[in-house]
Specification:
By secondary structure, the protein is of the alpha/beta class. The protein has helices spanning 11-23, 45-50, 107-119, 144-157, 171-177, 191-198, 214-226, 254-261, 270-274, 277-290, 317-332; strands at residues 2-5, 27-32, 37-42, 59-63, 83-85, 88-90, 94-100, 124-126, 161-164, 180-183, 204-207, 232-236, 266-268, 294-298, 336-337. The structure holds phosphoenolpyruvate and manganese (II) ion.
Length: 347
Amino acid sequence: MVVVMAPEATQADIDAVVELVQAAGGEAFVSRGVSRTIIGLVGDVEQFGALNLRSYSGVSDVVRISVPYKLVSREHHPNRSVIHVGGVPIGPGLVTVIAGPCTVETPEQTLTSARMAQAAGASMLRGGAFKPRTSPYAFQGLGEAGLRILADVRAETGLPVVTEVIDPASVDLVSSYADMLQVGTRSMQNFTLLQAVGSASKPVLLKRGMNATIEEWLMAAEYIAQRGNLDIVLCERGIRTFETATRNTLDISAVPVVQRLSHLPVIIDPSHSGGRRDLVLPLTRAAIAVGADGIIVDVHPQPAAAMCDGDQALTGDDIREMATVVRTLPRLLGRELTPAPVPAGAR
Ligand code: PEP
Ligand code: MN
């Protein structure tokens, strides 16, 4: 059960609901959004019904929800959400392109990649500073030095930055540089990390675990929401199947399925799913056609020399082709490419 507080509800109103629920033997989880506070109730639903919470001051609605994820469900929030990242909207009616290198290597490589991202139609920059690598001998990322480079490139280009955070202890550090925190496929069920980003003040990009069902993915999002952070964008990035021709199998049907179940925007990663440059454009067309709210794509000035995932990075002519696809296809389907933000110096 979920109690939706009115925008004008006071702290005393919220405390009163929490105390009532606790006195009835339940637990109450307060989640503060930008416009309203939501209280998730865990315990005996029948007993909560008897409390007649709707009659209390500041309560606007009491919702009984049948799915196990509550705050991220459309039962709770029927209209699809728009999430703003450094002023860039992601949500219905739009196709938001996020692009950049898999990993930050040098200031020059990151700036050149950001320019390539802009040429491809991107309004946000991606780039890893903390890399969750399968091999402990592989490049692990530049850490804070990488975050500094991303912040410098944001200042130069105006592109808000999304970058991965791999452990709860670095959430504050990454939040101090990034506009959006990425939780990668390998971390989707790191519940302490989910709670830590749920307590952070930045929006979260939650990738689907490569072995996770849609319900497990939405429950992971619920962990974040339950800590008060409802600014979540979901990213389908391919799941493990028997198929070996591609790195992972892009579950294209996850997009309409999740958009029906959850109000959160859903984007697709056509780079990490296929793991092959030649698949990025076809999968991008599929993503836009199926209704994805955006894409996140790897680009690199010299893919052959990339320290991570060069095989899937777009470069050269592919960037021009990407720009054509994202400028023409959304419009045919009644949506718009999200415009790039204007850099502060150019306003
Ligand atoms: C990435 O986007 O850099 C990444 C590591 O992705 P994933 O978690 O989907 O493998
Ligand atoms: Mn990668």
